[in-house]
Structures are given as structure tokens and as C-alpha cells.
Write a structure and sequence with these properties.
heterodimer; A: alpha+beta; seven-stranded antiparallel sheet; 8 helices; 25% helix; 32% strand; B: alpha/beta; TIM Barrel; eight-stranded parallel sheet; two-stranded antiparallel ribbon; 15 helices; 16 strands
């Protein structure tokens, strides 16, 4: 239904050719998800600022750019650039993120803050990974670890917002990609909804980002949070998640979706199909299949 | 010969009922529950949408689908844990025979489920054979006993009953045997009418104190259920939640009864399907969906009804009439005794007479013997077990590893009414009617 990839470089380097690697992996899985493509990349940390990616409109007809820039001024917005449907700018890193979201998203119905983080940047677009590269030149982006997704939509519409990776809106530096379907999504959505949690889409995968953010907020580490998915989330899921310092995967209890990974002294790579790893990363290594209920998390 | 044409309004049954009232000056009384042809939206107006391409179904035997059901997680120190989500509702010893009560207790225990006392207090044998026993506290206070209450696994404070909300229980004199009279502290052979409202509280404000009193009496250990007939369900559920209920039981108009005026069974309360939708909305709007558990009762017949009720928001279901049918109610045996009551198998609703041909709703020692406790228990066990398998099959086909993960969105509506009531698209459209 979808293709997911993840790459995690070991060691201290935070400025490797991450965009190039993730793009190559993603291109190998383009046929699994013709509807849209996206990446979540963790770049070199720059202290003192959050980086925000804002979708100005689904069509890229961003006539509200000026209004967004004005709304972001209170948060110390700087270095604003525009590319496709997205605005990219820095804000102060002590910003009240939920306040930033409500301020910026009040500008227009289609305005959505797609990611905020010290390291995280999400770009996604309708169409193929090649299209994504064409618009955003993601192969130029550098970093230490990242996720990618190609989407074949099942029960929800095709647009930028419904594409993956998902950021958990309001929680900096957390992104997920998911292949499968969460069958208790509506129930979870109802439970979160009554506590005022806003869902931006009708895509079941979004609930994973919300779930993990709440688990992390409650003080759990990523590994424990992802293990919690095995009991709290139902259905099929091969899922990757990453924060500024952690990267991991979880596979559902019945192993309903494919996922393979490799772990070398230099890197960890995870993907729906082995070909994504082999094509992007030359070398001699074993690739093995993730098992049902398997959770693995790597830290840097 | 020309075809005789009867009136669509004054149908034969209507004519008979009018003439019976004209003869006696009395309203009609009977047991069982509503007999109207179901023209309102019911669970039959919904259909499940199993996995196809967008989702992946689970295998029946290899892939576990949990049925474990936990109730009372809000305040109780010891929530009850059941193996299955289908429970036996409260039916009084008095309305039911001793054998029936014990058979229900044993049958429920055999599958790890619960049973409930009823408007007549706790039987020693009932406690002994129950795995999880819910103690009902009713307006009548018949047989109420603080020591029994403390032996219970949960307390159910009953405000009303689905078959007849707004009125009290009835036990006609023919069923008030010496044993029943002694348990209830009343004279033998006299009709008993329970109060319509609880003498211990005068509305939801006082009920808060009553709930607190029950908590104190049971040392904050066991869950407190509040049970209501389905009437103004949305507001009632909000109030019960505010009053501190751990679990709310909503009993729809299709619920059964041992004896009630026919008019109540046919013309009061709202259907179970509508009740569950209102109840879930009330809990969601109170921010308590998932924290206060919801039990749905009222005419549930099989695993499909139960699965639909759960998908719409119930954590568990009560069965009553279906369990009695498992005990042989309306079975074509002892046909001459059905005839003596002026009825026949499949058409019997004569629980109120105390002459139940199969020994379920009687206090007559000879009739009661017709219900063998062990055999009855086995049939109740089998029914609960088979219903649970049905719920699991549906859940697995919808890709759920836990029956409690069924959701409204797993279904489509088959009628405009069900679409509007449940907020689900009408099958064949993407439209929710009334929205």
C-alpha cells in the first residue's frame, strides 16, 4: 500500500549526504506509492532557533505568504524562503509552539505548519519521489537521520496534508512514517478529540504521531512509546519514528506488513523492501526481516 | 366470495384488547417485553464493512482476538475483569425460579462472565456459584442486605428499566410463594408493586450522596454501576457520570420484564440502537468516553447485535431474554401447558402468570423441576460462548485484535433512519443523512 524508508547514520557526523540517501531509497519504492512522496530529515542542529516548514496552500498558490510572515513575526521569524507550496523560516527556539501553530494557521483554511524542530524538516508533495526532488532538491539536504514515505492512499484523500511523514503537530522534532492501517483509529481519535486534540486529516496514520507525542510528553522514551503501540493501536503497522536523537521501528503483532532492516557499524537502514537498502547503500551486509512485535530503537 | 377486509387500524388484536378492557375495567398486564413489529431503526439496520483492500482481516484460529472486558476503572479499587463482554442482566429471584437463577449464575461463571441479582435480593446459591456477581440496589429495597452487598463484585444502582422506565417492578401474587414472601418481607400471594422512584434519593443531586454511601458501604473497593431505562438518555447519562458512576447501564425499550402493563412495554422509552448512540455522545461530550464504561441492554439476541452495540460505543452488553430462551423459554415442549395459558411455544409472554411451562419464570415447585440446573447452566454457557465467537468473528473480519476496538465507522446504515441516528453513511452513498 505504501513504501517506507529510514536511514540513521552512526557516529558524530550530523551533516552527511542524508537527502541523497533517503531519496535513493525512496525512488526504489516509487511503484508502491504513486500518490505522494515525502521525507522527514534531521539536519545539523543550530542552537537558538526552531526551523518551521509551513504549507501555505494545497496548490502552492501561496497568496497568504505575506500574512503568514506577519503572523510569524511575533515569534522572531527570519531567513524566510519559499518553495512550491511551502514556506521555510526560523523562529526563536523558546517559542510556544502551540501558540505559533494557532497564530499561523489562523491565516487561512489551507495553512498548516507541517513541521517545527531544532533539527526536523518535513517536505512532502503529491506525486512521485522524483517530483519531490524536482521541487525541493532534497538531495542537497544534509543530516544524520531521516524517514521517507511513498503513498498509495486507501481510505482518505490525496493532498499534501494527507501525505506522510506526519509531524505530531505541536511537539517539536518528532516524525513518523507508517505502512498499514490502524483499525482502532476512529476510537482513538474520539478519545483524544474529547480532550481537545486537533486532527488535521482523515488519515489513520496521523494518530500514530499524536499517540507517540503524548507518550513522549508523559516522560516515556521512544522505545517504550513504540512498544506501547503494540497494545494500544490495532491493525497493521510497520512504522518508523524519529526524534532529534532517536530512530526506531515497530512491527505489528501479526506481522501484517513487510519491513526489513540492516545494521552496520556505520549506519542503520530500514525499508519496506530490501531493494531500497541495496540500491542506496553499496557494501556487504545482511538485511533481515523485522519480526512480529519487534521494536528497535537506536540513539545518538 | 369476496375477500374479507379487516381494518388496518382496528386490527383483530386491537379489537380483542378493547373488548377485554370493556369486560374487566383493567389494563393488560404481561411479561416478556415489547411485541410490536419492529418498525423503528434497530441493529438490523446496520451492516458491518469487513476488510477488503484497504485493511487486512485477521485469521480465525491463529490470530488472537481479545474479549477480556474490564469494567469500573474510573474510581473502584477493584474493577471487575470478565473473560467476555456479554453479561447476564439483573432478573429477580421471584420473577425467576430458584433453578433459573442458579443456572444463570453457573452458566455465566463457566465462561468467565457475570450475573446480577435483581429485585429480590441475593440467593446464597447464586453467590456461591457466581464468578462475578453484581448486586442490584433497587427502589423496592426487597431483600436488600448490607452483608450481601459487601459480598458482591459490583453494585448496580437501578434507576429504571428499559421495558418500563418511570415505573416500578411488579410481581403478581401467583408468584409470591412463601419463600419469596419471606425473602422480601411481604405477605404471601399478594401482588407486589415496587416504587417508581428511589426512596433513598430525590433526583440526581441526592443520588450523588447515595453513590457515595454505596462506596462507603463497600469500602471504595467495587465498581458502582448506575442503570437506567432508555428515556432522555443523553442528559441521563451525563448526570449519572456526574454522580460518580464507574459504569453506566442503559436499557433500551426492547428490554424484557417479568410483568408490566403492556402499554409501557409498547409505548415508552427509546430503542436500544438510539440509546447507545445518545449514551456515547453524552460520554464524549463529558470528556469521559473511555473512562466511564458503558453497558447496553435491551433485546440483544446474538453476536451481531452485541458487536453492533459495542461498535457504537458499548464496552459490554447485557442479555436477559436471550438467556431465558437458552433456558428453554418458548421451546416447543410441554405444549399442553402453553395451551392452558392460552398461548403456544414461540408466542408465550405469560411470565406474569407464574405458570411458566418450562420452569423458568415460576415459583411452582413442580414446574420449577422442569428446569434442570446443570443442563440449564450448560445451555447458558453455550449461548454466551457462541455469541462471543460471533463477536470475535466480526471483529477479526474488521481487522481487530480486540473486540473492544470495533468502531461505528466499521459499519454502514441500511436505512435512512439508522443513518441519521448513528451518524453513518447510508450504504451505497457517502452521505450521512440528517447531517
Amino acid at each position: 500500500m505504501c513504501g517506507i524508508v529510514g536511514y540513521f547514520e552512526r557516529g558524530q557526523n550530523t551533516a552527511g549526504p542524508l537527502g541523497k540517501t533517503v531519496l535513493k531509497m525512496l525512488e526504489a519504492l516509487a511503484c508502491r506509492g504513486p500518490d505522494s512522496a515525502g521525507v522527514a530529515l534531521f539536519g545539523p542542529p543550530k542552537p537558538g532557533r526552531f526551523l518551521a516548514r509551513v504549507k501555505a496552500g494545497e496548490d502552492g498558490a501561496a497568496d497568504c505568504t505575506a500574512a503568514i510572515a506577519a503572523a510569524a513575526e511575533d515569534f522572531g521569524a527570519s531567513d524566510l524562503t519559499q518553495n512550491g507550496a511551502f514556506l521555510r523560516f526560523a523562529i526563536r527556539d523558546n517559542s510556544d509552539v502551540p501558540a505559533f501553530l494557532s497564530r499561523v494557521e489562523a491565516v487561512g483554511r489551507e495553512v498548516e505548519v507541517v513541521s517545527v524542530g531544532r533539527r526536523l524538516e518535513i517536505v512532502k508533495q503529491v506525486g512521485s519521489p522524483g517530483n519531490l526532488e524536482h521541487t525541493f532538491a532534497i538531495s542537497n539536504l544534509r543530516g544524520s537521520h531521516g524517514l521517507g514515505h511513498t503513498r498509495l492512499s486507501t481510505e482518505s484523500i490525496v493532498d499534501i496534508s494527507h501525505s506522510q511523514p506526519f509531524w505530531s503537530h505541536g511537539y517539536p522534532d518528532l516524525a513518523i512514517v507508517h505502512n498499514g492501517h490502524i483499525t482502532n483509529y476512529h476510537q482513538l481519535r474520539r478519545r483524544y478529540g474529547q480532550h481537545g486534540v486537533r486532527f488535521y486529516t482523515e488519515n489513520d496514520s496521523e494518530v500514530i504521531a499524536i499517540y507517540l507525542a503524548r507518550q513522549l510528553q508523559s516522560g516515556l522514551g521512544l522505545e517504550a512509546a513504540m512498544r506501547g503501540m503494540l497494545t494500544d493501536l490495532d491493525g497493521s503497522f510497520s512504522c518508523l519514528a524519529a526524534t532529534a536523537s532517536e530512530f526506531g521501528f515497530v512491527k505489528d503483532p501479526f506481522s501484517l506488513k513487510p519491513l526489513v532492516f540492516t545494521e552496520t557499524s556505520e549506519f542503520v537502514a530500514v525499508a519496506t523492501e530490501e531493494i531500497a537498502i541495496r540500491l542506496a547503500l553499496p557494501g556487504i551486509y545482511d538485511v533481515r526481516e523485522a519480526q512480529a512485535r519487534e521494536v528497535r530503537v537506536w540513539r545518538r | 366470495m369476496a375477500t374479507l377486509q379487516t381494518s388496518g387500524i382496528f386490527q383483530p388484536g386491537v379489537i380483542d384488547a378493547i373488548q377485554a378492557k370493556a369486560e374487566t375495567g383493567l389494563y393488560a398486564m404481561r411479561g416478556f417485553g415489547t411485541l410490536r413489529e419492529r418498525r423503528w431503526a434497530t441493529f438490523d439496520d446496520l451492516t458491518f464493512l469487513p476488510c477488503s483492500l484497504t485493511r487486512i482481516p485477521l485469521e480465525g484460529y491463529r490470530e488472537k482476538c481479545s474479549t477480556k472486558t474490564v469494567l469500573g476503572t474510573r474510581f473502584a479499587r477493584k474493577p471487575i475483569e470478565l473473560e467476555i463482554p456479554v453479561m447476564i442482566t439483573g432478573m429477580s429471584w421471584g420473577a425467576l425460579s430458584y433453578n433459573a437463577k442458579v443456572a444463570l449464575a453457573k452458566g455465566a461463571a463457566a465462561v468467565g462472565s457475570s450475573n446480577t441479582t435483581g429485585d429480590g435480593g441475593m440467593l446464597a446459591a447464586e453467590r456461591e456459584h457466581s464468578r462475578t456477581l453484581i448486586y442490584e440496589v433497587l427502589p423496592s429495597r426487597y431483600g436488600i442486605n448490607i452483608h450481601h452487598m459487601r459480598m458482591a463484585d459490583a453494585i448496580e444502582l437501578t434507576v429504571g428499566q428499559g421495558a418500563k422506565p418511570g415505573t416500578g417492578g411488579l410481581l403478581l401474587g401467583s408468584k409470591v410463594s412463601e419463600r419469596i414472601a419471606q425473602q422480601r418481607d411481604l405477605p404471601v400471594g399478594v401482588d407486589q408493586r415496587s416504587p417508581a422512584r428511589h426512596p433513598d434519593f430525590l433526583g440526581p443531586d441526592d443520588m450523588i450522596l447515595k453513590v457515595e454511601e454505596l462506596r462507603e458501604a463497600t469500602d471504595w473497593q467495587v465498581p458502582i454501576f448506575i442503570k437506567m431505562g432508555a428515556s432522555r438518555v443523553y442528559d441521563d447519562v451525563k448526570l449519572a457520570a456526574k454522580a460518580g458512576a464507574d459504569v453506566i447501564v442503559v436499557d433500551g425499550m426492547e428490554g424484557g420484564t417479568g410483568a408490566s402493563p403492556s402499554i409501557f412495554q409498547e409505548h415508552t422509552g427509546i430503542p436500544t440502537l438510539a440509546a447507545v448512540c445518545e449514551a456515547r455522545a453524552a460520554l464524549e461530550d463529558s470528556g469521559l468516553y473511555g473512562e466511564v464504561q458503558l453497558i447496553i441492554a435491551g433485546g440483544l439476541r446474538d453476536g451481531a447485535d452485541a458487536a453492533k452495540a459495542m461498535a457504537l460505543g458499548a464496552d459490554a452488553c447485557y442479555i436477559g431474554t436471550a438467556a431465558l430462551i437458552a433456558l428453554n423459554c418458548n421451546k416447543p415442549i410441554y405444549i399442553e401447558d402453553y395451551a392452558a395459558l392460552g398461548t403456544a411455544p414461540h408466542a408465550c409472554h405469560h411470565c406474569h402468570t407464574g405458570r411458566c411451562p418450562v420452569g423458568v419464570t415460576t415459583q411452582d415447585p413442580e414446574l420449577m423441576q422442569r428446569l434442570n440446573i446443570e443442563e440449564g447452566a450448560e445451555r447458558v454457557r453455550n449461548l454466551l460462548y457462541a455469541m462471543t465467537l460471533e463477536i470475535q468473528m466480526i471483529a477479526r473480519s474488521c481487522g481487530k485484535s480486540d473486540v473492544h476496538h470495533l468502531e461505528p465507522e466499521d459499519m454502514a446504515a441500511l436505512s435512512l433512519e439508522a443513518s441519521a441516528i448513528c451518524g453513518l453513511p447510508l450504504a451505497g452513498t457517502r452521505k450521512v443523512f440528517g447531517r
